[in-house]
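Lab notebook: predicted structure, single chain.

Context: the supervisor wants predicted structures on file for every construct in the current expression panel, including those that have not yet been purified. This is the next one on the list. No modifications to the sequence; it matches the entry in the shared construct table.
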Amino acid sequence: MAKSYHKSRRCPKLLKGRTIPLPFPSKLAQARKFEIDNELLQTFSKIPKYAKFLKELCINKRKKLKGYVEVRRNVSALIKSKQVSIPIQSIMRKKCSLKVESISAQKEHLSPTKNISAQKEHPGP
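Prediction complete. Output recorded below exactly as produced.
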């Protein structure tokens, strides 16, 4: 015959009246809702126009930039905002290094010195 337990029998008498603090309350905190910001996405889509500027930021991040760089309002706000720039720094390092490599590969492909050397190797009729 199965025993039937009442709810009061499950909890010890010591725990009925008091609450136990959680050891890691941050683990149980609910995550914020993720909202898509269309303006921010549009700003990121315009970033390849500023490839040289981004390359300088990635390479010389500890050095101060000399002179002024003309950027549009959205990119300027994005760079100056600490709330936006701090969370995406690690992502930007990876993405920027990939874009710099692809841009340099494109420039090598279109450089006139490479075309001249290719003509010397394969003389025309």
